[in-house]
Amino acid sequence: MSERKVLNKYYPPDFDPSKIPKLKLPKDRQYVVRLMAPFNMRCKTCGEYIYKGKKFNARKETVQNEVYLGLPIFRFYIKCTRCLAEITFKTDPENTDYTMEHGATRNFQAEKLLEEEEKRVQKEREEEELNNPMKVLENRTKDSKLEMEVLENLQELKELNQRQANVDFESMLKQYKDYEEERKRRELEEDETEMKAMLEQAQSRRFLEDSDSDEEAAQVPSRSVPKAKPTDILQEDTEPQSKKLKIESWERSVGKLNSKSQLAGLVTVKKQTPGSTTANNVGKQATLQSSDAGSWSSSLPSVTQPPSAAQGSSLSLLGAYSDSEDSTSD
User: Fold this and answer.
1) 172 is in an annotated binding site
2) What pLDDT, on the 0 to 100 scale, is given for residue 28?
3) Pick from 46, 73, 108: which residue ends a domain?
4) 46 is in an annotated binding site
């Protein structure tokens, strides 16, 4: 067995291609192709919407006896996705589009039909004007008349709107302008009044400060009293006024706690002579010395004192005792 995938195949010398039987297929035979919906459509059976771009396994066939400039026209069969009803459409090479045959209605078909009708009318008009100059003149007069009617209708609509709205834009603008001028004038007046008030306040404050300074300058010499001595400040009463008031109220209600001033007349001061003062001083010194000696003698070991020192200490104690008796008798 020979290979399948070869570049050259063997043809015997007696090979005759005309003797090969040809396969006869019908011209309207159908092929299964994969395509997408070329436009939006709606099924007539169930009302299902089929949007542009939805994929179908369609059957394709060539339309018999329909050719456009030698180009064949193809027909496609699809099924509704909901009710499986058959929908057919075919190509339209004249308008580079597709046309719906049956089973569904094309969406936005009215707009397309209107555009086609306008194109048809325009084409017929051009054909008429091509060979008839009077037709051209008639068409121009009709167009101008139609344009005038459109302008009149537009003017009527504008007047109707103005009558209903009843708004005068010029008066509104004038009123707004007057309002702005009045506002600016009011602001200027307020600024001027505020400035005047501030100036008057500043002048009054300056006048009060000047008058206060003059009064202080006049009162300063009378207040400054020179002190006689530098030590007089030590004799001033440093107690606060509140404390003095409390003491006075207490003395009025209870009485003074210190009675030295009341009993001062009951005590007499002794008048001492120079001799007595010296003896008293000597006695005091002797007592101090004896007390110091006793303290030292208690702390130090016992030492025998001479008889003369013992006699002197006893005499000093006797003198001090006699001085105390004299003071009591006086």
Assistant:
1) no
2) 81
3) 108
4) yes
